[in-house]
């Protein structure tokens, strides 16, 4: 599925911060409560919650209620979509750089032939 521009923006913004990447890394190991996610950080629980909100906006994290607590889960689909977008950009730029390399090689060959 092709991600929307807004979805891709949200994903890339979410991935731009090391705290959010650390939260995703932890959630990739399994579900966790907000307090468990906040424990390794020296920032406030409120700050961690704000990071989680951005991850939820990017749909990288979902939450469910279990009793009085919220359990968070990693959702990998937006990450796959971002990877596919990056790979398409890489393919485009590789072909453009190869064309430039071919042009410069041909110019070097022509210059050498003229000098001989």
Structure in words:
The protein has 5 helices and 3 strands. The protein has helices at residues 5-15, 18-27, 34-38, 45-57, 77-115; strands at residues 32-33, 61-66, 69-74. The protein has a 3-stranded antiparallel beta sheet with strand order 1-3-2. Helix 1 (5-15) runs antiparallel to helix 4 and helix 2 crosses helix 4 (45-57). The radius of gyration is 22 Å and the shape is elongated.
Strand content: 5-15%
Major sheet strand order: 1-3-2
Taking the sheet with the most strands, its summary is:
3 strands, antiparallel
Structural class call reads alpha+beta
Large-scale geometry? elongated
Q: In percent, how helical is the residue content? A: 55-70%
Helix count equals: 5
Topology order in helix (H) and strand (E) letters: HHEHHEEH
Give the C-alpha Rg: 22 Å
**Low-confidence spans:** none
Average residue pLDDT: 93
Instruction: State the separation between the terminal residues, measured CA to CA.
Output: 56 Å
The total strand number stands at 3
What is the secondary structure topology, with strand pairs?
Elements: H1 5-15, H2 18-27, E1 32-33, H3 34-38, H4 45-57, E2 61-66, E3 69-74, H5 77-115
Antiparallel strand pairs: 1-3, 2-3
Helix pairs in contact: 1-4, 1-5, 2-4
Summarize the structure.
The chain is built from 5 helices and 3 strands; from the N terminus they run ααβααββα.
Notable traits:
116 residues; alpha+beta; three-stranded antiparallel β-sheet; 5 helices; 12% strand
């Amino acid at each position: 599925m092709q991600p929307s521009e807004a979805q891709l923006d949200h994903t890339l913004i979410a991935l731009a911060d090391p705290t959010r990447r650390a939260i995703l890394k932890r959630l990739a190991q399994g579900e966790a409560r907000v307090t468990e996610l906040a424990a390794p950080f020296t920032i406030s629980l409120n700050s961690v919650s704000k990071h989680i909100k951005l991850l939820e906006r990017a749909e990288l994290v979902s939450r469910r209620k279990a009793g009085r607590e919220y359990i968070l889960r990693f959702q990998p689909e937006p990450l796959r979509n971002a990877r596919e977008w990056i790979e398409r950009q890489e393919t485009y730029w590789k072909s453009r750089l190869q064309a430039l390399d071919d042009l410069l090689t041909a110019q070097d060959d022509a210059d050498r032939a003229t000098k001989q």
